Amino acid sequence: MFRNLSYKDLAIMALLLDEEENRDRVVSKKRSIWVHDILKKRKIDGEYVTLCKMLEDHEEKFFKYFRMTRFQFNVLFLKIENNITKQNTHFREAIPSKEKLAVCLRFLGTGDSYQTIAFSFRLGHSTVQSIVLEVCSAIIFTLKDEYIPIPGEEDWKRIAKEFWEIWNFPNCIGALDGKHVVIEAPPNSGSLYFNYKKTFSIVLLALVDAQYKFVAVDIGAYGKNSDGGILSNSNLGDEAFPLKKYLLRPYPGPQVREDQNKRKFNDRLSRARKVVEDAFGQLTAKFRIYCRRLNALPKNADTIVMTTCILHNYIKEDSTDVHSREVSSSSSLPAGLITSLNGQGGSAQPEAFENRDKFKKYFCSAAGKLPWE
């Protein structure tokens, strides 16, 4: 076939074939960084451009969308901006840091899946997931020591004073409780995260002050553990808050039916302990990720949960009207996805029983009795 061709013709054909091969390589390279046409319209049709910026002129709707006021949003952005800002490159333009914060808060506030958020903001699924974890990590790094600091002596005294003034319970430095946060079954985890509700979960153990703020939190215990085991192995465990002597529990049901004074003690204890239940309710009302199964690895779930606890304290720092809205909405929360720990009971030292009896006697005395009792 090629016998009648000259050397010049063969050289030309070789150059043409080489050029075609190079063109195929360029096409293949372009396809490897291909972006869908829908995502290319992020700056025109994305939710951040079409809606988020418009909300800045409507404070109430801004609050409903981001779960915080416009002022709180801007202050939060200034605090973490340096940690989430990326530089533009020749290959791609970085996503604006304020848009990243909007994506993360929308994910936490709605509980929508990464895919749903991705469609709304015209971003890739993996991009949204990385943005959420990046912003959450920045919030923890920047705000944790400021809004969930290690309490000092003056802090404990202030908390005890507030519990007495607001909830009429003396010598109380916090209400303690734990909740299961339901997650997708982690790979290769067996039954470690499988709890008594027959779901997979990590545990949020929290100490709350009289103002519904988190004083200390421990996150990530296996869902299968009992409340006593979680407490003893946590950062809030025996060394800081000895369960045997300094943690009050109500009298059991049979004793209450036979003793009116014990019932009065249980009522006062329940009134003070309700603070931590309400704090969890407000947390769930504000961040709706707790209303659905969290699709994240346990390590990432720990990061997300810690972020919501920090933001809870941050938002409550200077917002009384927000608190009233949260309390009114926390009574109608969906059940089942943030549930109480399974109490296992256990033995207690004699001094623990003596301390409880002292509180009971005080509540039934003239000095400790409330005017409406």
From TrEMBL:
InterPro entries, alphabetized: HARBI1-like, HARBI1_dom
Annotated GO CC locations: nucleus
Cofactor entry: a divalent metal cation
Segments forming domain DDE Tnp4: 176-313
Gene Ontology MF annotations: hydrolase activity; metal ion binding; nuclease activity
Keyword field: Hydrolase, Metal-binding, Nuclease, Nucleus
Subcellular location field: Nucleus
Tree of life domain: Eukaryota
Family label: Belongs to the HARBI1 family.
Name this protein carries in UniProt: Protein ALP1-like
Organism of derivation: Aphis craccivora (Cowpea aphid)
Top-level taxonomy: Eukaryota, Metazoa, Ecdysozoa, Arthropoda, Hexapoda
